[in-house]
DNA sequence: GTGGTCTAGACCACA
DNA sequence: GTGGTCTAGACCACC
């Protein structure tokens, strides 16, 4: 998968990395079982420090999206459909926090004068973009 | 309007302040032309520094949501429907950046296993919450 | 509070720090609202790196036991009795993981020939030790 | 006995193996005198390296739970009740270390808001689970 | 070769 | 002055 990070962004590098991986999982570029690039390799590619990449992976691990194995590298642990009833993917607190973040982003659109329908349409478009990617085997 | 900020949140105070004002505008608690509380008063109410409040207002000004006059203090410049006529609300770059933030939040939900329909429903619920507030005259 | 860490232990330093703080919270030495020592100060006291202390605080933050504030330091967020029904302190997955760790430790005692009653007694003693500390105002 | 190990767990494989054997002894699946599976066989079954299995057995030997004879392979040396008569089961240092680990786990429960009674109940339930297994001849 | 841990710095953001 | 971010290294544990 081809991901980019922006060293000039105010968003921390490890956070950007985490965001890109999350998007990759949502879009099916990264599927459960897929290997993530080794921390060193990723660090070299982006010209950033290993520890920074590692911290990004830490986040993903904490979210349950990735699992790491000292010898076999890191693999994607979860995907768009792997959440079942038995293994509650999200704690309710985490889901609430997510809903709060969503509300803040949506409020921004509303405040800027976007119509509700336009916003919903934008969200649907993004989601169907992810879905289309998944159907195409994760190709961009 | 009654807003709350959490000094222990990882989100910077000025950012929280900005977020709450944005939500106030989206929900109609704050309408175009309304005065924002003077920085000193707000700083006193929250027990935080004037500079922090000021920085939050700066953000809102940069986003075009608030306008400051020497004499009249800060007033809300834009509202849920004012974009259509008054002025070009967003630069396309700003809109794109917003869409990117939205995509990141949505991707998180997808990656955690939420169904697309569930996510759209959550978004609609949030938006209709704002709309209901506006109809009620911004009362919570 | 007086805590010690052992640089020769196989347990990572940041993990030891986290364990000691958890025990401090259980024993009431650290109560909700109490300030934790600044990372730099703790690092200097133990002769370890700031990043290491920081990682320990990261863990505690992830567990919801501590909250940090850039300017005002880190404070204890939760205590032996602050878990109420509304704010589900633990996700069920976290609780299950904890029960698993408990089972492993108990199995060890059983395998080494300790009687069940002896083990339960040991556990009760530890717990009442914590409770006694809390009653004594967290004094050791 | 049927044991499972998870290659993606943060817990080292040899440690998992050791934990499972300890639990097997506690639950009576493995009784004093029983043979442990040969390292090669176990390694093949799990698809892991012989050295890894060997390291797990080393731990058990160091804890006095397993004894290795040149000819007879590794046999379980101790069981839930063999401590009383046969030999001094634990050095007091080992027992203290174990109590420390137990205290850390219990502290975590307390800090997360579990009631002492709930914790004791959980421990009793785990212990009686082991006892029940032993009565059933170690069958799961 | 993989990730995990740790050091000794530095600079920045926040309040 | 607080924590957050990041670097450039090093060594270790695991497999």
Break the fold down into its secondary structure elements and pairings.
Four copies of one chain form a homotetramer.
Chain A: H1 13-26, H2 39-46, H3 50-62, E1 66-69, E2 73-76, H4 92-111, H5 116-135
Antiparallel strand pairs in A: 1-2
The structure holds a DNA duplex (15 and 15 nucleotides).
Provide the gyration radius of chain A in Å.
Answer: 16 Å
**In the CATH hierarchy, what is the superfamily of the largest domain in chain A?**
Winged helix-like DNA-binding domain superfamily/Winged helix DNA-binding domain
Q: Helix tally of chain A?
A: 5
Q: Largest beta sheet of chain A: what is the strand line-up? A: 1-2
**String of helices and strands of chain A:** HHHEEHH
Helix content class of chain A: 40-55%
Structural class of chain A: mainly alpha
Task: Give an account of the 3D structure.
The structure is a homotetramer of 140-residue chains. Chain A has 140 residues and is mainly α. A two-stranded antiparallel sheet of chain A has the order 1-2. The first copy, chain A, has 5 helices and 2 strands; from the N terminus they run αααββαα. Chain A starts with 12 loop residues before the first helix and ends in a 5-residue tail after the last helix. The longest helix of chain A is centred in the C-terminal third of the chain and has 20 residues, at 92-111. The model of chain A has no long low-confidence stretch (mean pLDDT 90). Chain A has 2 domains: 1-83, Arc Repressor Mutant, subunit A, CATH 1.10.10.10; 90-135, no CATH class. Chains in contact: A-B, A-C, A-D, B-C, C-D. At the A-B interface, helix 1, helix 4 and helix 5 of A face helix 1, helix 5 and helix 6 of B. The structure holds a DNA duplex (15 and 15 nucleotides).
